[in-house]
Structure formats: structure tokens, C-alpha cells
Write the C-alpha cells for this entry.
Amino acid sequence: MRSQIFNLIKDQTTLSWEQIAANILVSGILGFLIFVSYMISHRGTIYSKKFNVSLVVLTVLTSMVMTVIGNNSPNVRFFELVLNGEYRGLYLATEMITAGKEGSRLNLQVNKKDNTFSGYALRLDWGDTEEANKLYPFTNYTTRAKTQHELVYPGAKNSTPELKEAIKNEFSLFEKTLYSYDYNNEKYGYKNYIDIDSFVDYFLINEFTCNYDAGALSTYIYKDIDGKYKMCVWDFNSALDAYQESAMPTDDFRLNSGLWYQMLFMDSDFTDRVITRYAELRKTVFSEEYLFGFIDDTIEYLGAAMDRNYERWGYTFNQEYDLMHPTERNPRDYDEAISQMKDFITKRIAFMDENIESLRQNSAESKTKKYNEVSD
């Protein structure tokens, strides 16, 4: 592990470990400096993302929940890092979302020679990538998407202009269908294009954690070999009230008015499936007993590693290292960090239990009448 980590960062010689620590953040749910493998991107650079307190356990928790309920999610592993004989702390390695490579769980293939593909993966993000990776499907050129579609797989080296154009046109067909008067038509509508269960679970896990980057940033969607589009959970650095600029309210739904989901929730069948699924998950992985038990078990599992990590990075709990505004949102020790996370979950569950049925207003006749009249 030592040589592997060294190879990943050896070109960053201008950065001290303290600078790296400040940029990658050292105050996750247990005050950890988090090293995530997706910092080494397809572009070969290190992302310096600051993580708030809950995110170490939250990342593990989310991956576990999505696995339990039957969806692909990144594998995660804790490890302690010693570099050149010096202890560098407790880290979390997160599996990258990849395709077409040995060991990848997204079994997608392209043939560059004859410009054919069995599937592909796209990302919505800021668009700070080379032009060759950018894609401009329907919701980009109609400005419904506020961020940039990017072609993750195949990458620029394994793609051709013809392949890229074919993928853009195919994905645009799905989006045009979704935003058309035929959006819920049994023969022509969205159900012919997406894995509905995947979209339902993606909505619920991100709404449950108030992860509102979802649908706009670090958002992955792929076409599986079965021909249906599926979602990938990813990047919870702003979830569970970890958004740096202001506190995240627990008494709101947002993703239902976002990209793709605005139209999906106009269909009463999709809305019914979301509400039914939520009721199912509340009996298991969305229950306080299950979630709090997992958090406590994770803390017990880490044991003395928490103490060693605190000796190395505990000073980052001091006010001068605060990242969230206002400053009183920043925890001052492990116990406060854990308490904040649990309190947020409790409040969020209470709101969703009381208001999940309100999602039906999105498919009310007053909102869908103009579509239904045409499709009828």
C-alpha cells in the first residue's frame, strides 16, 4: 500500500502533506483525512475536495444500503496509511465507477473498429474536462440540464467521432421521449428506456440523505447490456447537512423537480413506486435502528485506529479549520460529529414519513392535463 499511495502522489511535490490534508479535509465523521480513489480521475489528476464530518461513515453507509437493496454501488475499504515510516492517518478507499476494464462491474463494451457498442456511461458535472469527452444531447442544447454531459466510457482513446455521435443521438432519443407528450405512453414512453427500480432507489437514497448534487453534479448514468439506463450512486460530500455554504433543511423534497425526475414524477405509476418503495425500506435499511446500529458498529470496528488518527489530525477540529457556515455547524470532537449525523437522520425520517405522500401532487391532473390530453 505504501508504494502504491506514493506513486499516486509523487508528482504532487509542490504540496506539503499539511496542504493536501487541508484540501482533502481532515474532519470526516470521525475526523478522518479521507483518501478516496476517485480523486485519481480518468484524467489522471488529483481532486482536492473538502469533506465534512459525516462523510466517512456516510460513504460506507450509502454503499452498504444500496448493495443491500440490490443496486450496484462502489466498494469501500478503510485503511491506515504509513508513508516512508510516518503515520499519515485513517483513510477510506472508494472504488471508481469504471467500465470496459478488467475487474469492472459495469460490463460495457465498445468496438472502435466498427463503431458499435453494447453500452456506455455518462456523467453530469461542471464540464471541466477536455472537449473530446463532452457530449451535447437533448437536455444540454435545450438548456434543461444546467451542467455538462460527459462521456465517461468509452473515453477519448476508445472512441471515434462516429461512436460519440451515435451515443449522443441514442441518449437524446431517451431524453426527447421523456420530455415529450408521449412520456408515459406504454408503447413509446420512458418505461422502454430506463430500469425503473434503479431510478426509484437513486431518488430515495439521495433524497433521504439530502444529497442535492445528485442529478446535476457527480451524476452517473449508464446504459446496461440489457438496453436500459441505470443510475449509479456517487459522491456524498454535501449530504446529511455537509453542504459548506449553509445548513441543509430537512423539510423539503428537491430532486423531484430536477432533471429527468420532473417528468418521471408526472407519471402516477412512477410516483406510486417511489412511495411504496420508501415504505418497504423504512422497515429495514431506512430505519433508525438499522442506520444507528451500522454507525455504532463502524465506530466499534475502527476502534484504536480512531485514536491514532486523532493524534495525527485532531487539530483540524479547531475553529481555524472550519469549513461550514455558520461556524457553529462545525463539530469540535468525534462525539459531536456522530450526534449531528444521527440528529439529522432522525429529523429527515420524520419529515419523509409525514410528507412522502405529497409527492403525488407532481402527477396531479392539474399538472399533467396538457400532456394527457395530447397522449389520449
